[in-house]
Amino acid sequence: MSAVGLEHLFARPLLNTFTLHLFKDIKSFQASLNSVSYSSLIYSLSDEREERRNCLVCIKELAMSHGTVQRIVLASDTKEASLIEQLSPSRLHGLILKSDSLTTLQEHLSRLLNENRRVNDSMSNHWNIHRGRLLSPTERAILQFMSCGFSIPEIATRLDRNIKTIRAHKFNAMVKLGVRSDVGLLDAADILTHFPVPDHRMPRFFGALHS
């Protein structure tokens, strides 16, 4: 969602009581934290896997340094939402689809922003992902090996498992992440492998709010 789109959304009745600040890069937002007390961060994603990683890095850092700031992600589609939800290292307050109608977006955001910054432990945060289907340690390890170019037989050797077991874990990971191909699985693997490395070249918009 563009800056113009966010401004239009927050000009509508249910959201116009909030003050919207727009940033094109993470550094500018982080610098503003010294002078502005935000209630929420709204991160608007494109469908690029590098940006998903940047999003997770930013959200993790914010959760550690400013735990009272609500963290909301606007995802492009259901696949992207699933990846973010499954792989986020910190709990999200909301995960909303940009493909929803303007009225639905407005209602969901209004409901979230009025929850007084409470983490939604039931995960009924307007995007019903089943957290019980999180990747297991073995499934995560397989994805990380795949991202480094290892074949299934090589992964089986590394993990001291048979090939059939590795294939079964790989299939389970695909089901949990909602992907149907190795390419989709590598999108998630790329996040897991490179997540510890922050990247501040994010070109998209995200907004922070205070009421």
Automatic annotation (TrEMBL):
<keyword id="KW-0238">DNA-binding</keyword>
<protein>
    <submittedName>
        <fullName>DNA-binding transcriptional activator BglJ</fullName>
    </submittedName>
</protein>
<keyword id="KW-0805">Transcription regulation</keyword>
<dbReference type="GO" id="GO:0003677">
    <property type="term" value="F:DNA binding"/>
</dbReference>
<keyword id="KW-0804">Transcription</keyword>
<dbReference type="InterPro" id="IPR000792">
    <property type="entry name" value="Tscrpt_reg_LuxR_C"/>
</dbReference>
<dbReference type="Pfam" id="PF00196">
    <property type="entry name" value="GerE"/>
</dbReference>
<feature type="domain" description="HTH luxR-type">
    <location>
        <begin position="128"/>
        <end position="193"/>
    </location>
</feature>
<dbReference type="InterPro" id="IPR036388">
    <property type="entry name" value="WH-like_DNA-bd_sf"/>
</dbReference>
<dbReference type="InterPro" id="IPR016032">
    <property type="entry name" value="Sig_transdc_resp-reg_C-effctor"/>
</dbReference>
<dbReference type="GO" id="GO:0006355">
    <property type="term" value="P:regulation of DNA-templated transcription"/>
</dbReference>
